[in-house]
Design a protein that fits this description.
- This protein has 7 helices and 7 strands, in the order H-E-H-E-H-E-H-E-E-H-E-E-H-H.
- The protein has about 170 residues and is of the alpha/beta class.
- It has a single domain, classed as Beta Polymerase, domain 2 (2-Layer Sandwich), CATH 3.30.460.40.
- A 7-stranded mixed β-sheet has the order 3-4-5-2-1-7-6, with helices on both faces.
- The model has no long low-confidence stretch (mean pLDDT about 95).
């Protein structure tokens, strides 16, 4: 929709609707102090029907649309808990930037797996769960995309530094 990426309104709406989710991917790595910029928010939501209904309401408020290369405004779509659960990955756009929903990211078994080691982060008063750096690395290794391979050495270095610092 708009080329401006502002994750805060997206996170605020998800939090206001009490959606249970873990932030994953590049934005999660950025929140873990990785020096890479990203232009979207990736999340893994809890797949319970009640949570997916809350997610559907949040997506409606966000005016989320299916992202396509041919239409920068995205394609409108109707959704509810069942339809959201019926697709493994949603690539969406909002007026605040892109939002990708992955129910079972590569190298993981989904929300419960990621939530187990996630940390809470508060961004301008909004508290969210952020995937652990180890889980981000695990998922990026499993995805094995060129863009993931480029950032993995730095992410591993940050994780090793943290482990060394915690042992000292």
């Amino acid at each position: 929709m708009d080329d401006a990426f502002d994750p805060l309104p997206i996170l605020k709406v998800l939090a206001a609707h009490r959606v249970r989710f873990v932030v994953i991917g590049g934005y999660a790595a950025f929140l873990q102090h990785a020096p890479f910029l990203t232009n979207d928010v990736d999340i893994t939501p809890d797949q319970s029907a009640a949570n997916l209904e809350r997610l559907s309401a949040a997506l409606t408020e966000l005016d989320a649309r299916i992202r396509t290369q041919s239409d920068p405004e995205g394609l409108p779509f109707n959704h509810n808990a069942a339809s959201l659960a019926g697709v493994r990955v949603w690539n969406l756009t909002t007026p605040h930037g892109d939002l990708d929903i992955s129910f079972v990211p590569n190298g993981t078994t989904g929300y419960d797996d990621l939530a187990a080691d996630a940390t809470d982060a508060t961004i301008h008063g909004v508290t969210i769960q952020v995937a652990s750096l180890a889980d981000i690395i695990r998922s990026k290794q499993a995805a094995n995309r060129p863009k993931d391979q480029r950032v993995l050495p730095t992410l591993r270095e940050i994780l090793a530094y943290r482990h060394a610092k915690n042992r000292a």
